[in-house]
Structure formats: structure tokens, C-alpha cells
Amino acid sequence: MSAGEARLLLKISAYLKILNAKAKAQKGMPADWAGVHYFGGDTDFEPIPYYNCSHDAETRLVSSGISRVAHPKYGHTAIYTALAKGTYMALRHEKKLADEHAHVVILITDGSDTNSSARFKKLIGQTFPNKRVFLAVIGVGSGAKVHEFKQYADDVRSIDNFGRLVAGIEATSIIAQKKRTY
After folding, report:
1. Averaged over 33-47, what is the pLDDT?
2. Cα-Cα-Cα-Cα dihedral sign, residues 152, 153, 158, 159
3. Short-list 39, 144, 53, CA closest to 87
4. CA atoms within 13 A on the CB side of 49
5. CA angle, 164 as apex, 69 and 131 as ends, to 5°?
6. Nearest CA to 176 among 38, 60, 49, 22?
7. Which helix H or strand E contains 177, and what residues bound it?
8. For residue range 99-139, what is the model confidence (pLDDT) as tens digits?
9. Confidence category of residue 158, pLDDT binned at 50, 70, 90
10. Is the pLDDT reported for residue 97 higher than 80?
11. How many CB atoms lie within 10 A of CB 75?
12. Contact 56, 90 (CB under 8 A)
């Protein structure tokens, strides 16, 4: 695992703990659910099952488990593919829940799309923007090229480094909560 991957995992784990604390503070509200999915090229997509953010044990399991996932092969980045698959996973998960939930898909990348198939690019163009799923794209570092997603996403931002990732996700979460639709 590279040093960059290790920093990313630490930041995602820290954010999952923040979600856990917030979920536990909102007694009586529908629970937030989270899933973390790794992506690489057009066929490299590794989902981690969704978990209930208000459960301490599930949060610990996911936080520690994300470091053991076989990461996709890097060298190619398929952002459109990851957005399509991540959105599908979120909507499919909702069918298992008793309550209706808002959906927030946050894609984090340190690159640009170099490998998505034309069918996924077309699908994202037909799907977003929409009122059902809040879409955010966060680019990390100077190699992240995320400006092209402004036409689809509710929030597109660039940050200098992984050290600012939790703050970037928090800022995106605030915007998502303001736009929340069910």
C-alpha cells in the first residue's frame, strides 16, 4: 500500500467515526448508511457493503476493514464508471430499507478520467443532475482533473492534499443536508 493510499484510508476512517457520532446524536431519526467503494479502471470496482452509521460495531468493522480490501489496479481512472456503479449501489441498497433515505454519492479522486467506457459517460449525462441523488466530486492534489463534472454534480471541489479531505467531505455534507430531498 502506498503512503497516499494509507493517508486516504486514515481520512476515510476518521470520517466514518464522525458519521457514527452524528448518527448516534440524532435519536429517533432514520439512520444514515454509508458504503465505501474503491475504483480504478473501467472494470476495477471494489464495493464494501453498506453499514448503519449509528452502530458502533459496524463502524469499527468497516473502518478497520477498508484497509484489507484488495484495491483495484491503478494506472487507469474510470470516474464516470465509478459514479454510475456507486449510484446504482446506493439506490439498490435503499430497496432493502424500511424508510426512504436521501442519497449522497461522494467520489474522491487524485486523477482524471482516462478509462470510462462511452456507455457510462452517456449514462451519467442522462442521470445527472437530479433531485434524488446528491452528487459530489472531490479532486485531491494537482493531478486531479474534476472540472468536467460541474455539469453533473451538485458540488465539485479541489483540495491540495489528503490532509484536507475530512474538511472537504464535511463541507460537501453540509451542502448535501441543505439540498436534502426525499
Report:
1. 75
2. negative
3. 39
4. 6
5. 75
6. 22
7. helix 165-179
8. 666 778 888 888 888 888 899 999 999 999 888 888 999 99
9. very high
10. no
11. 11
12. no
* Residue 75: per-residue pLDDT: 67
Residue 159's DSSP bridge partners are 140
Instruction: Output the nine-digit C-alpha cell for 4.
Output: 497516499
C-alpha cell, 154? 451538485
CA dist., res. 42 & res. 114, Å (int): 9
DSSP secondary structure letters along 42-92:
TT-EEE---EETT-HHHHHHHHHHGGGS-PPPPS---HHHHHHHHHHHHHH
d(C-alpha 127, C-alpha 142), whole Å:
28
**Is 92 exposed, middle or buried, given 0-12, 13-18 or 19+ CB atoms closer than 10 A?**
exposed
Tell me the three cell numbers of residue 181: 430531498
The conformation of residue 8, written as its DSSP 8-state character, comes to H
Which residue is associated with the grid cell 460495531? 57
CB 134 within 8 A of CB 106: no
d(CA 83, CA 70): 20
From the list 31, 35, 59, the residue with the least C-alpha distance to 47 is 35
Q: How confident is the model at residue 5 (pLDDT cuts 50, 70, 90)?
A: low
* pLDDT above 50 for 40: yes
